[in-house]
From TrEMBL:
Domain called HTH merR-type: residue spans: 16-81
Protein name: MerR family transcriptional regulator
GO MF term (any one): DNA binding
Pfam families documented for this protein: MerR_1
Positions in coiled-coil regions: 78-105
Keyword vocabulary terms for this entry: Coiled coil, DNA-binding
InterPro entries: DNA-bd_dom_put_sf (IPR009061), MerR-type_HTH_dom (IPR000551), MerR_fam (IPR047057)
Length: 159
């Protein structure tokens, strides 16, 4: 049997009638929210609206906030900020992965020394520089040690 691909929550696959049914709203409400920029679906080449599962979740959230008395302009701003947070989380994940990949690519390459000719030599963790020909000029210290020496705490760093 063919294996079904995993459904992406951002795939625009739902017609307006289906999205309205899943969100518990009238299709005309979805059109109004589209015009206001609250929940903007993708469009087919013919111009039909296509909603994703994420859009349906947003529509439900708009309905909840509206029922709580939050005005549409405020809801629009909240949704905009939520999208920005989601984007920034993705960027942080990407950057963390790049750092992790770089560290795996260069394990232990954190201590440097000057070679006999003046060149920079990278030493692996646990390797000592030959005193007759090399001098260690920099080695990172653990954050805890740096804070202890400078009198800082974790709370000081966040300020």
């Amino acid at each position: 049997m063919d294996e079904q691909p995993e459904l992406d929550e951002n795939s625009p696959i739902l017609a307006i009638a289906v999205a309205a049914e899943l969100s518990g709203m009238h299709p005309q409400t979805l059109r109004q929210y589209d015009r206001l920029g609250l929940v903007v679906p993708a469009r087919t080449q013919g111009g039909s609206r296509r909603y994703s599962l994420r859009h349906v979740a947003q529509l439900r959230e708009v309905a909840r906030m509206s029922a709580d008395g939050i005005g549409l302009p405020a809801i629009a701003r909240i949704l905009e900020l939520e999208d920005r947070v989601r984007e920034l989380h993705g960027r942080v994940r990407d950057l963390e992965e790049r750092v992790r990949t770089e560290l795996e690519r260069r394990p232990g390459a954190r201590i440097f020394a000057a070679g006999a000719t003046g060149s920079v030599v990278t030493l692996r963790h646990g390797t000592r520089a030959r005193r007759a020909t090399e001098l260690v000029v920099w080695r990172p210290r653990p954050l805890v040690e740096q804070q202890r020496d400078s009198g800082e705490s974790d709370d000081d760093e966040r300020d």
